[in-house]
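FYI - complex with glycyl-adenosine-5'-phosphate, inputs then prediction.
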Amino acid sequence: MPVSEKIVELGKRRGFFFVGSEIYGGVAGLYDYGAIGTILKRKLENLWRKYFLGLNENFFEIETTTIMPEKVFEASGHITNFVDPVAKCIKCGTFHRADHIIEEFLHENFEGKSAEELTSVIRKHNIKCPRCKGDLTEVSILNMMFPIGMGASKETTAYLRPETAQGAYVNFLRHFNIMRMKLPLGLAIVGKAYRNEIAPRQLLLRQREFTQAELQIFFDPAKADEHDNWKQVSKHKLMILSGKKIEEVSCDDAVKKLKIPKFYAYYLAKVQQFFLDTLKIPKSKFRLRRLSDEEKAFYNKIHFDIEIELDGIGFKECGGVHYRTDHDLSGHQKISGESQEVFYDGKRFIPHVLELSFGVDRIFYALLELNYAEDKDRVLVKLPFDLSPFTVAVFPLVNKDNLPEKAKKIYAELKKYYDVVYDDSGSIGKRYYRQDEIGTFLCVTIDYDTIKKDTVTIRDRNTTKQVTVKAIKLVEEIKKLI
Ligand code: GAP
């Protein structure tokens, strides 16, 4: 069984994620997170916040609306450029992402090609509807945003935001003034984005409603070739795709050979460190891929995708480091008529933007898949302790003889320090298996020795090894183990 199917089963069985509005048959591209999945997702988002907001004392999180007026997307270029190429099957009527069906057929990337080019590839290779083998129409272009009519007669056109980024741009100047007019200024948004994907697929990886965590760093373009903490990363090796291989390139070399500004290379290194050191993604499954002029997003001057290798899919984009220049602020200045210039360092200019953009659901899925393991007859999710939905589970061996009372006391004490769950249903073996499947790092069992000798047993999720410790020392013992 492919790992993705096992993850779907696990997702449903243990409450990580499942199809949304399931009792009505579900809708393609819409997923709900269950209780355990929500805890994991929040932990991931909070680690992201801690790491990226910690990079500079002038980086802050803001929360902005998910509905924005049409003019915002006129200014950003999304009305004109945020489009997907589609081809319709003449026989069954299904719409397909033209570049995706070609990619599946020819195993080559066709992102960024024009409608005419894609039509000619479909005709040349006689590519048919993957569903019914019917003929396909010529490729046309479809805007991916969800329009909504606001007001009693739906007279005002607005859109559900297709990226969180615009919320930061339309608020930039206010925050620049509030935050004592310093650059770089970072504005982060963690929240929902919406795209009318033609062919939602691959579970959480291509949805119509999904979560992004994006940090917009506004900076002085005259300082693009410097960073105050450059020395920290100058020798750091970036894992960059070069031809068909991943090469380890130091930041110093990336600047020289790949002609990327230091300010940009610094953040590439920080992003890589987040994935490898904080999320513990195996090095062999991670790479940075520079996008060609054809492939890169319409707003980017330099565009690297952050990719993680997934089973049966290959390397999948989970985020990007985007040099958006003054594309967005200039667009908003033009359409709103409000100057977006700042006065900084003795001159007046429109700041440039470096965007660190992450798809939370894709990273969530990658974490589940890469940490999924089977050990004889048990399934376990080997999440690092700070991502485990629960650090510790507490069990009374049996529900009698004062063990539940003792276990609840220990549970209450541990809760002051750790994320703890109490579980008293089923045999101890079943409880261990249940906790392994949701990634709980340690299990603590309260037994008759707890009453007699004040000892408890700690069991490690990965090894199943058990150690007996004094209950009074439990908080410190757990600290040592994590
Ligand atoms: N603000 C820049 C931006 O939105 P993007 O590459 O279009 O850039 C950023 O999206 C990230 O959002 C992607 O790298 C991906 O991880 C995630 N993402 C994009 N579309 C998605 C979808 N339909 N479902 C789930 N995640 C998606």
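The two ends are 33 Å apart (CA to CA). The pocket of glycyl-adenosine-5'-phosphate is lined by residues 163, 165, 195, 197, 205-207, 210, 212, 214, 317-320, 355, 357, 359, 361-362 (CB under 6 Å).
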